[in-house]
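Q: Hi! First time doing this. I have a protein sequence and I read that you can turn it into a structure. Is that right? Here it is:
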Amino acid sequence: IKQKKVNKSNSIDWKSIFSLKSMIFTITGVFIAVVALKGFMIPNNFLDGGVTAASILLNGTFNVDFSVFLIILNIPFFYIGYLKISKTFGVQSFIAVLLMAVLMYVVEIPTITDDDFLIAAFGGFLIGLGIGLVIRGGGIIDGLEVIAIYSQKKSGFTSSEIILVINSIVILGAAFKFGIEAAMYSILVYFIAIKTSDYVVDDFEEFTALTIVSKEYETVKSLIVNDFGKAISVYKGERGYLPGKFEIKHDCDIILTVVTRLEIHRIKNAIYEIDPNAFFYVQSIKEVKGGLIRRPVKKH
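A: Yes, that's right. Below is the predicted 3D structure, encoded as structure tokens:
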């Protein structure tokens, strides 16, 4: 589908917010995050970064429930998301955080383990899984993501770099409040959580660039566009220059296409049937914008 500019003044898409798929992802993700926080992280003063981590820090400093800080600290960020990203995104994210705060207050989950490594590993995995599922549902449960998304548009830094700087400050606070060991484990929690959430969000639909050099380039172009329905870009180049045959070269079209990980194997096999000696290489893509790309629509 062609990517369209987001209309920031659009009305709230209540049908999307309360769709069955969105609700399943959101409720499941929030519940898993609550298990991670109450069963692993909060009893042991481990942080995962962002507003959630700041709420744990404040909860350990003041005798006020974690849920109160979670809502209060997130409100400004979701207001920014409502104005600068989309109304639907802002409302859906606030609903997810409100649900999380309620469950944190009413659901009793005993401490599952007192082993620090297990707490960091499984706590990080579960909070990352919960965050990823909520994102798949169309919202977020940590307002820091809003600042990262918005700041990325206004600066030369990526969202990951922005989040890393802010979380570094939070983890320094953890070292001051809970000790250096808790801060070190919090770094492990954060690393596991972000890797897990990235995989849940992108899973097998993560985009990859596939570049092909083949003597049968016209047939390969037709295969990718007409058989697999993928858009391509073409560079004019030369093939050849092999060791011992440096003087042999041929003009050719170098083909570039963007595919998902699930599609790579099928396309490679189809190309090899056309040209067993085709050369290609695969590159991970950090971001894709514009053009004609089939991609899952993530509601923001």
